[in-house]
Amino acid sequence: MVNIYSERVLIRPIHSKDALEVFSYRSNFEVNKYQNWIPSTTEEVNRFIDKNPNAFNEPHTWFQLVIEKKDTQEVIGDIGVHFEDPQNLQCELGCTINEKYQHQGLASEALKAVINYLFHHLNKHRVKASVDPRNTKSIRLMERLNFRKEAHFKKSLYFRDAWVDDVIYAILQKEWKVIEFKK
Predict the structure, then answer these.
(1) Helix, strand, coil fractions of the chain, as percent rounded to 5
(2) Residue 6 and residue 27: Cα distance in Å, rounded?
(3) Structure confidence at residue 181 (pLDDT)
(4) What does pTM read for this prediction?
(5) Over the stretch 48-61, which tens digit does the pLDDT of each residue have?
(6) Helices (DSSP H) in 51-175: which residue ranges?
(7) Residues 6 or more apart from 3 whose CB is under 8 A from it?
(8) What does the alpha-carbon distance between residue 129 and residue 168 come to, in Å, rounded to a whole number?
(9) I need a surface site. Which of 82, 104, 145, 164 has the fewest CB within 10 A?
(10) What percent of the chain clears pLDDT 90, i.e. is strictly above it?
């Protein structure tokens, strides 16, 4: 199994023991209003965890990782990695951070570590993210990570009973600067 380290966090596969902590931040509708998945119960989180693939880096799968604070071992967020193409050279990322840990640079740090791993250990060509243009926090995060805005699709997703826009951000391996983290 993959474990990815940065200065302050460990990014690791999600486990059933994480269900309560994941539910605690994922069930907050206001904070996660741009997310596809907002669980209603911890049982729903457990079913989600049970569906996680057995292996990281399998084409056509979403693999869920959690972000764990090293000093407290508390799960503070999660990152989904979609290994989307048959050649397995491109990925899509999604990230959720517990509201009480936002604005501390932890999402940036965790995503940088995952992107480093994808580009420099798995030799991915391109990493992208799909963002609702109303989600200004995620847009600023993509910009801080030096992702470029590649597309703005008008009313292209049917989300929560309405058609919404979708903005695609991406970065290529050759554009990414390697970031070294201590374990």
Answers:
(1) 25, 35, 40
(2) 26
(3) 56
(4) 0.94
(5) 999 999 999 999 99
(6) 106-120, 136-144
(7) 10, 11, 12
(8) 6
(9) 104
(10) 92
